[in-house]
Design brief:
The complex is a heterodimer of chains A (110) and B (113). Chain A is built from no helices and eleven strands. Chain A is mainly beta and 110 residues long. The termini of chain A are far apart. Chain A has a single domain, classed as Immunoglobulins (Immunoglobulin-like). In chain A, a hairpin with a 3-residue loop joins strand 4 and strand 5. In chain A, the strands form two sheets. In chain A, strands 2, 4, 5, 6, 9, 10 and 11 form a seven-stranded mixed β-sheet that branches. In chain A, strands 1-3-8-7 form a four-stranded antiparallel β-sheet, with no helix packed on it. By secondary structure, chain B is mainly β. Chain B has a single domain, classed as Immunoglobulins (Immunoglobulin-like, Sandwich). Helices cover 0% and strands 52% of the residues of chain B. Chain B is built from no helices and eleven strands. Chain B is globular and about 40 Å long. The chains are: A mainly beta (110), B mainly beta (113).
């Protein structure tokens, strides 16, 4: 089974801090995704990547950037964290119909 | 624009009852329709999926019904159990490489004993 690992389950950061959320997958999948999940809003796509060093904006990219230097690793960066970025962040990787999520990182910005 | 619309937002069902969650889509190019189940503190996990060449798929107590002409599909949970209490997401995608899944907004299901 594909395993998608998010480095932190819970994070608390201060407003204005630069925040890095890390995601690693172990099945050589080309496609990786970052979502945020908020009550009543479902899963909203922030950024995705089809290959190393390649990135595409999703539906809500403002305030975020990403990095994909290696195929297995996809990082989400909050350049200057704000309280409205408090959320559950989910990473996923996919190949064709196989789409696997990590367990999520609950980020609180205070 | 929401590519996949899901209802209801929340659902409460008695143990042993039938839970029904509905989804609708617009893009006729979609050819893969999975359902994901998410328990608190976990990421969503694939529950069951269907392709548009069949109208129904059943796996245990879980059934997807698919209506291609209406561009709708639904999840039925028979004999609902308290352990089924979770958030359910429908999704749609095109199966070509580099696919992106479009998710519904989720349904929070509570099965009461």
């Amino acid at each position: 089974d594909v395993k998608v690992t998010q480095s932190s389950r819970y994070l608390v950061k201060r407003t204005g801090e630069k925040v890095f959320l890390e995601c690693v997958q172990d099945m050589d999948h080309e496609n990786m995704f970052w979502y945020r999940q908020d009550p009543g809003l479902g899963l909203r796509l922030i950024y995705f990547s089809y290959d190393v060093k390649m990135k595409e904006k999703g539906d809500i990219p403002e305030g975020y950037s990403v990095s994909r230097e290696k195929k297995e690793r996809f990082s989400l960066i909050l350049e200057s964290a704000s309280t409205n970025q408090t959320s559950m962040y989910l990473c996923a990787s996919s190949y064709r119909e196989s789409y696997t999520f990590g367990s999520g990182t609950r980020l609180t910005v205070v | 624009q929401q590519q996949v619309k899901q209802s209801p937002q929340s659902l409460i069902v008695q143990k042993g009852g039938i839970s029904i969650i509905n989804c609708a889509y617009e893009n006729t190019a979609f050819d893969y329709f999975p359902w994901y189940q998410q328990f608190p503190g976990k990421g969503p996990a694939l529950l069951i999926a269907i392709r548009p060449d069949v109208s129904e798929k059943k796996e245990g107590r879980f059934t997807i019904s698919f209506n291609k002409s209406a561009k709708q599909f639904s999840l039925h949970i028979m004999d609902s159990q308290p352990g089924d209490s979770a958030t359910y997401f429908c999704a749609a995608s095109k199966r070509a490489a580099g696919n992106q899944f479009y998710f519904g907004t989720g349904t929070s299901l509570t099965v009461i004993p």
